[in-house]
Amino acid sequence: MSERVIPLVDQRIPTLNAPAAAFDPASRMAANGLLADRLGRPLRDLRISVTDRCNFRCNYCMPKDIFDKDYPYLPHSALLSFEEITRVARLFAAHGVRKIRLTGGEPLLRKNIEILIEQLAALRTVDGEPLDLTLTTNGSLLTRKAQALKDAGLRRITVSLDGLDDAVFRRMNDVDFPVADVLTGIEAAKAAGLGPIKINMVVKRGTNEHEILPMVRHFKGSGMVLRFIEYMDVGATNGWRMDEVLPSAEVVKLIQAEMPLVQLEPSAPGETAERWGFADAEGNHDAAAGEIGVISSVTHAFCGDCNRARLSTEGRLYLCLFATQGHDLRSLLRGNASDVDIISAIGHIWGARDDRYSELRAAQPPDTGNTPQRRVEMSYIGG
Ligand code: SAM
Ligand code: SF4
Ligand code: SF4
Predict the structure, then answer these.
(1) What residue ranges line ligand 1, CB within 6 angstroms?
(2) For residue 176, what is the domain's CATH number?
(3) What does the pLDDT look like over 76-107, one tens digit per residue?
(4) Any atom of ligand 2 within 6 Å of the Cβ of 379
(5) Total domain count for the chain?
(6) What is the maximal distance between C-alpha atoms in the chain?
(7) Using a 6 Å cutoff on CB, does residue 182 contact ligand 2?
(8) Is 232 near ligand 3, meaning CB less than 6 Å away?
(9) Whose CA is nearest to atom 8 of ligand 3?
(10) Closest CA to 196 of 167, 227, 174, 233
(11) What is d(CA 58, CA 203) in angstroms, rounded to the nearest whole number?
């Protein structure tokens, strides 16, 4: 096997400043909730990474040999403060954002995250509704934190879980964390009323595909929605290979062979998951048995209605999961930019967006970390 050599360059260097037009009174953009990018896609979903640190070392995300004790994690002063996050989230909401997902790294490692949730829960959409506020976690701290998160105003939660077999799970998180503790955390989230709970399983061929059926059997009828995610070529450090991707179509076929499924309508425009319901004896959806989802990020591009923006831990705005450059909003938040300036900057940045990486993937070589245009890591901008 050839050795992977990945230079430890700082992936966070490429930055774009806010477009000058944002500050020009003649081309200043106001927020009316109707913002669209160059492909006509609205801005609805904001994912905020609250830390670039994690207590797991899933090898598809933060491989141990790269994310070791010498890795240059961000100092605390570089992170957006809760006040900065809340301010920028309010301005995104003015542009039409309805859903906010807190992520990371492991978001529950951010100290006093409940305080941030409380602040975000007080924000409103342009229609005066509360935001759909959710969080993605590896579940390791949920048993301790679920009730406090709910009390702070968190509505739903997504827990990542790549298998039920303890040995497989310990190997995949690569820090020997027991699966039983995540399962207890999921129960704590359910008991606290965080729902509906989604469970995300990244499927890597040759690593955990034999966990698919046990996971489906376990979560069927539980009220939780299990979703299978194709292993993606995010970042530049996970040594991604196409032959380790198990296409969603194969996942569905495997489940169908044991439990008949019927395809369901997407729940919302821009929804990443294709929904499949468990079928009853007549071939209709059995609502009590529930549903599963597949997220085919590799085999079936869904850029056409991608309405997601991502805010990195230090306040850079990324327009695509596979972006190589972020737009620096922190300097505006920490400078003397007014709300109107920042709203205008966001408007100009989103208005110029034409990213559609997944649709173009086949035409591009994987990023090995040696290219000048290095892609950001998932742990830095969140999933
Ligand atoms: N630490 C939290 C967690 O694991 O849920 C939140 C951050 S994690 C980066 C967000 C999601 O991205 C997780 O569901 C994780 O499984 C997924 N993810 C990370 N790397 C991935 C990859 N290479 N392909 C597909 N999904 C990935
Ligand atoms: Fe940590 Fe989540 Fe990445 Fe796993 S997927 S290493 S839990 S940030
Ligand atoms: Fe959106 Fe980029 Fe993913 Fe396409 S590749 S769906 S534009 S995040």
Answers:
(1) 54, 60-61, 103-104, 106, 136-138, 160, 200, 202, 229, 231-232, 234, 238, 378-379, 382-383
(2) 3.20.20.70
(3) 999 999 999 999 999 999 999 999 999 999 99
(4) yes
(5) 1
(6) 64
(7) no
(8) no
(9) 320
(10) 227
(11) 12
